[in-house]
Amino acid sequence: MRLNNSFKWYKPFRFILIALAIPGVIYLLAFFLLGGVLTGKTDITSGFSPGAPLIFAHRGVATTFPENSLESVAEAVKHGFAAVEFDLRKTANGDFILFHDADCQRLLGKQQKINEITTGELRNFPLLMDGKPTVYYVPLLEEVLDRYGDTLVFYFDMKLNSFRDADQIVQIIRRHGIEKSVIVASADAMFIFYLGYRYGDIITALEGFNAGKEWTYNLIPRKLKPDFLSGFIGNVTDTHVQWLRKRGLLSRRIVYGIDSTNFDHARESGLGNVILDYNPASRFFKGKELFRQSLSEN
Length: 298
Prior knowledge:
The chain is an alpha/beta fold. The chain is built from 11 helices and 11 strands.
């Protein structure tokens, strides 16, 4: 008798479970087959020249001046770059600065975290280059934007990943009116998804999207998809390039780890958007007409 009663309740309960599960299954299938079911954001990358390559000077041109310095950005401009990549961290005061490492040993000669140093204290520690002190200092992001915000395209490599950091960097971008000339990049997917969900006008790049991760792209809802996919050139295979072509994403791929030894290879593979370690003394860059043309197209 008990068995019959249990079976009587099981059938409608099973029906309810199936009814509840169907929307979830459809949603997951939409992720895999359609890349998400949320509304896609406006294609704000139209602010860039259609089909023109984006060639970023990696941390500025850091051969004569320290990386991520105001002077390295000026040097990039001097050599014809219209786009510059640099790394962003914060001081103890919460000011955004151009700085790559979490600690200060390599760049400032101090055994201390950069986020433990106040903005005012930065002037006490000149940047090192090849282990030797220079007369240059860690710049504030605001200094760079005040000088070059209306003339350059920027790639902000975020070394910060909190949602508060995301909110603050968006405020700075909007205050300077440079929404269409800044790519905010991070290897933290949740950071990029947050920007995509809350700030549809901000251009984003998901770093570390390499060969073998293609299947994850369909898991991202359309509204959250990054505008660019970024990663090391060494992690790009022919199969990955074919996948990018098939999906119409080749122009949305950015590669770094590029210098005079592999610049031509990247361009010939169709990878026009590069973050370049530029050495003005290199015979390749001094004599390459292709490179000059690439910069003029940028």
